[in-house]
Design brief:
heterodimer, A: mainly alpha, B: alpha/beta, Beta-Lactamase, Rossmann fold, 2 domains, 9-stranded mixed beta sheet, 6-stranded antiparallel beta sheet, 10 helices, 17 strands
Chain lengths: ~170, ~300
């Protein structure tokens, strides 16, 4: 009875691990798409209303929602008490929240964007946003490929490695 | 709307500054803060407070970082939203304070397109002195009718302050509808189109608009009984004033001149006075370091109604 319970636990744990890794692969392309939408929203706030950056970031946060939106809400909150320190400084203070599946490369791209955000005319800002959107599209395609290659594998791997471990231990 | 000088500085001006200048000002004595009219930041120079004819150099050498931080706050991290204002040389912030900026500008087709690197920053603290117009207003009325009036004074003698208070009194107490063409956001201190200084309950303000166009827009759209504009003196003003008067609207304005005599020698002012547009001239002068009313004259003859502190 105890053995059965223990092996059940082992399988559950290892499949949980596998599913978590697979989730990362599943969420990343979606969040990269959200990020592109976020930059589109920010772009139109800048282009059509010349909204100051803190309010623009908040508009993005409420339009996008989820962990990606949270990034922008947090950035706006840090800026509000930054006492003039730069946007990229504020970005460094933002900690990714739970559920964020963006890789460190994705986040580096955002860090580079924050170095130019707000500093330039409307035209320059739009160009910068478009440039970063193109990069995000590339990253998204890459993430999509990684997802098809890895998502299922990790799920099976989790379940089967659990079963294998149980069999060995038995 | 306005609190004590200390509260204005603490609540509205200090949050505009980067971290080091803010700390330096917080540490400074209350007395000079109460007098402060301008706060100047220049790279590699000490932080300077000017006010009441005095200067105070604070023990802080301003660096590029301080300027950058202050600009970040002033522009709300959004150069794109303030590029137009920066090209004019100043930003008006909440509270009606005007922040002048200088530095390297870009020029496009002969016009300043933007300020790309900020050199110095000058924060001019808006102070409203309510009641300074009370002593002047009676001289501007004849049988209860407000007369077309021009205020003369050298810089720093309170022309704008007096005009603002006259606008408030005419609007609140005389009960006339006043239109203000506030080209440099000095009279009403508009922030996002809303006056930050008290200009009265029957007052409409066109902010940041060239004076002559502003005056015409007001007469066309807001049906004012009185219009006010600061510092006239170019040729286009002449026609604008003419148009306003043709519409039966009373004009209040100011001009740079030490006295009537100097005004009569200025090219455009001379024409304005010669045309007989104005019925009253008010001259301000510093007396014992304090701006004071020097003369009120009846125009076009120039007969003095008031001189120094006695009636003529």
């Amino acid at each position: 009875m105890l053995k059965l319970l223990a092996s059940g636990l082992i399988v559950a744990a290892s499949s949980g691990l596998g599913f978590a890794v697979a989730d990362g692969y599943r969420h990343r392309p979606r969040q990269l798409r959200q990020l592109q939408f976020a930059l589109t929203v920010l772009g139109s706030e800048i282009r059509f209303r010349q909204t100051p950056l803190p309010q623009g970031l908040q508009a993005v946060a409420s339009a996008v929602g989820g962990p990606v939106g949270q990034l922008f809400a947090d950035l706006a909150a840090v800026l509000a008490r930054a006492q003039g320190r730069s946007v990229s400084w504020a970005w460094q203070q933002v900690k990714p929240c739970r559920g964020l599946a963006l890789s460190s490369r994705d986040q580096d791209l955002l860090a580079r964007l924050t170095q130019v955000l707000g500093a330039g005319t409307v035209g320059e800002q739009i160009r910068q946003l478009e440039l970063h959107m193109e990069h995000l599209q590339q990253l998204e395609q890459e993430a999509e490929r990684a997802r098809t290659a890895n998502e299922k594998i990790w799920r099976y791997l989790g379940v089967f490695s659990g079963i294998a471990l149980v069999l060995i231990l038995l | 709307m306005m609190g004590s000088p200390q509260n204005i500085i603490k609540g509205q001006v200090l949050p505009l500054l980067g971290r080091r200048p803010r700390q330096a000002l917080e540490a400074a004595e209350g007395e000079i803060i109460a007098l402060a009219e301008e706060i100047r930041l220049r790279p590699n120079q000490a932080l300077l407070i000017q006010g009441g004819g005095r200067e105070l150099w604070l023990p802080l050498t301003v660096n590029a970082e301080d300027i950058l931080e202050t600009m970040n706050i002033l522009s709300q991290y959004s150069y794109y939203a303030f590029a137009e204002q920066l090209a004019r040389g100043y930003i008006t912030v909440a509270g009606g304070h005007r922040v002048g900026v200088a530095g390297r500008v870009t020029v496009n087709r002969g016009k300043v397109a933007g300020l790309v690197e900020t050199g110095s920053i000058n924060i001019r603290i808006a102070r409203q002195l309510k009641g300074v117009g009370k002593a002047v207003l009676p001289w501007l009325l004849e049988q209860g009718q407000l007369q077309n009036t021009i205020i003369f004074a050298p810089p720093g003698c309170g022309k704008t302050t007096l005009l603002r208070d006259l606008i408030r009194l005419i609007s609140d107490e005389v009960g006339l509808t006043v239109g203000v063409a506030d080209e440099r956001s000095e009279l009403a201190g508009c922030y996002r189109g809303i006056p930050q200084l008290d200009v009265g309950c029957r007052t409409d303000v066109i902010d940041g608009c060239p004076r002559d166009q502003g005056l015409e827009m007001l007469v066309r759209s807001m049906g004012p009984q009185v219009v006010a504009a600061d510092e006239i003196g170019c040729r286009s003003d002449l026609r604008a004033v003419e148009n306003v008067l043709a519409a039966g609207v009373v004009v209040l304005t100011t001009a740079h001149a030490r006295d009537m005599q100097e005004a009569r020698q200025r090219p455009v002012l001379r024409n304005l006075l010669a045309e007989g547009f104005f019925q009253r001239a008010v001259v301000l002068r510093r007396r014992g370091g304090v701006p004071a009313l020097a003369e009120v004259a009846e125009l076009p003859a120039g007969k003095l109604l008031y001189r120094g502190d006695r009636q003529c």
